[in-house]
Write a structure and sequence with these properties.
291 residues, 11 helices, 3% strand, mainly alpha, disordered C terminus, two-stranded antiparallel ribbon
Length: 291
């Protein structure tokens, strides 16, 4: 039983990372109906920026995290304003190809600047610290991922529910033309959503880095995060996080109890089953766009 709880904690922490990356998918899709397949690579870039801020420049952990999040927010905003905005109105296939190409470009850039070797993330306030809960040993790194996800999800809920900017983002996601006629600067709002998704991805990457280490190929975590978004439902922010938890726990259990190799495919098997049985996701609700 203790082993099972130990596996659950690790799986939940892993799933939280998938859920946070998947939140970026959903934020962008709800606002612009684009699927950003470079979301995992934004996480990877944000992790490298934080690694440089903390490890090379000697910043405090929290200050380095804030600096990386701010830098990636600017990068996400400019990425939409300069690149993505130019293909608005083009077929979805063009958007998919562009974001996949951007992912390859970001990974190549990271390899050129930081190298392709696996790097250790600098010591964090949670490194090598554990707590004993009824015989279950929980590392503070895993606990920080879980608590960080809960706090970030709560902040996003409050932001979208109680702030004018959050309401403007929701209005733009419901009907961009109506929002424009109501005085919402839709293009600016869309770019801000890309900035917000880059911040969320950076936080996910920094929380996960001490466990996963840092390398350009970490951008491929975005593929499993996409599966989490599909399983949870692209229309639901909280459902997306739950989709990530399902994948994280399933992977951990598969690695322990199933033959080798199942861990790598369990996310895609779950996505296939959900698409067959509930194409809109487990936690989504069909809604008409408000005009």
């Amino acid at each position: 039983m203790i082993e099972l709880f130990q596996l659950l904690v690790g799986g939940i922490a892993q799933g939280c990372v998938y859920g946070l990356i998947a939140l970026g998918f959903v934020l962008i899709y709800k606002a612009t109906e684009m699927v950003n397949f470079a979301q995992g690579d934004l996480m990877m870039l944000g992790t490298f920026v934080a690694l440089t801020s903390i490890g090379t420049w000697g910043m405090n952990y929290w200050l380095g995290l804030a600096a990386a999040a701010l830098a990636m927010a600017v990068f996400g905003y400019l990425l939409d304003a300069i690149v993505l905005r130019r293909i608005i109105g083009q077929p979805q296939f063009a958007v998919v190809i562009l974001t996949i190409s951007l992912g390859f470009l970001f990974r190549s850039f990271a390899g050129f600047v930081w190298g392709n070797e696996t790097l250790n993330f600098p010591t964090t306030p949670f490194t090598n610290e554990t707590i004993d809960v009824g015989g279950v040993i929980i590392s503070l790194e895993h606990l920080s991922i879980i608590l960080g996800t809960l706090i970030l999800a709560a902040l996003l809920y409050l932001f979208f529910t109680y702030t004018r900017l959050g309401n403007a983002m929701q209005a733009a996601s419901q009907n961009q033309l109506a929002a424009y006629y109501m005085g919402v600067r839709v293009k600016h709002i869309n770019s801000l959503i890309w900035a917000l998704s880059a911040i969320v991805a950076t936080i996910a990457g920094v929380l996960f880095a001490p466990i996963s280490l840092v390398e350009p190929s970490n951008g491929f975590y975005g593929i499993k995060a996409f599966a989490a978004a599909v399983i949870g439902g692209f229309g639901s922010l909280m459902g997306t996080v739950l989709g990530g938890l399902i994948i994280g726990v399933s992977e951990t259990m598969a690695a322990r109890y199933l033959p080798p190799g199942f861990k790598e495919i369990v996310a895609y098997l779950l996505m296939l089953v959900v698409l067959m049985l509930r194409p809109h996701g487990l936690f989504s609700t069909l809604q008409r766009k408000k005009v």
